[in-house]
Amino acid sequence: MALKDDHIDGMMLIYNERVVQLRGSLESAKALLERLDLEEVELQALKQHEPFVLERYKPAWSHELMLMMLHKGREELHISHSIVTLDASDADQIAAIMKKGAPEF
């Protein structure tokens, strides 16, 4: 976490020693990336952080993702099939479907 004037200016979450989420100002993102010590990462960061990321890592591939803020009660649901609640017992089947649909992940 990067603090500035008593508030959070940036943060980096590392999951499973591989997946990294980076958020914050340019200054904070650069400082946090300087402390990242992983050989291979799956990094999620804002487009504005790209120059700092490319100083440290040479990507095998890259995708642009959309980040949205949603407010409960203001969404418009368009349901075209039945909804099913999943749990951990469905993980292998979900992983297989996701791998088939997007093998690069």
Quick recap of the structure?
By secondary structure, the chain is of the alpha+beta class.
Strand order, sheet with most strands: 1-2-3-4
User: In whole angstroms, how far apart are the ends?
Assistant: 27 Å
Query: Low-confidence spans: pLDDT under 50, at least 5 residues?
Result: none
Structure summary, number of beta strands: 4
Describe this structure in words.
The structure is a single chain. The chain is of the alpha+beta class and 105 residues long. It has one domain. It has helices at 26-34, 50-56, 91-101; strands spanning 2-4, 7-15, 19-24, 42-44. The chain has a four-stranded mixed sheet, with helices on one face. A hairpin with a 2-residue loop joins strand 1 (2-4) and strand 2. The two termini are 27 Å apart.
How is the secondary structure organized here?
Elements: E1 2-4, E2 7-15, E3 19-24, H1 26-34, E4 42-44, H2 50-56, H3 91-101
Parallel strand pairs: 3-4
Antiparallel strand pairs: 1-2, 2-3
What would the keywords be for this entry?
extended; 3 helices; 26% helix; alpha+beta
